[in-house]
Amino acid sequence: MTIYKKEAELEAVKERCAILDFGAQFGKVIDRRIRESAVYCEILPLNTPASKIVEDGYNAIVISGGPNSVYAPDAPAYDPEIFQLGLPILGICYGFQVINKEFGGSVGREELREDGQVDIEVDNSSEFFHALDPVQRVLLTHVER
To answer: Recorded GO terms, molecular function (predicted)?
Structure first.
């Protein structure tokens, strides 16, 4: 297969997801799961500019997890313009904290480590979540640092 043919095939892909990598130990698992859903995706540096996401034709963003705190002075940088693109964005772990903080929420600390499963409510009126049941069981891990 020539490079030209690969580029032409990528042009034909309609569903494209950018994974902004914040250091998730499960980044490749996230990537594989998205690809298993017949969606093309790439793991990109966390500071990828919003303009590059638009230029490359992504129509969804996943912000991965990572070991950092959103309140740390050396918290990883991202382009806040990604939140102005009108694309669906899924935050996983640290990525969810970034979204929460970006929109005026707060992130609290827990005294004890907690791991387990918890049910969350999903707004499945969104195109990104339309095929999901309104209640999803997810994994929860947090710890005092």
So the answer is: ATP binding; GMP synthase activity
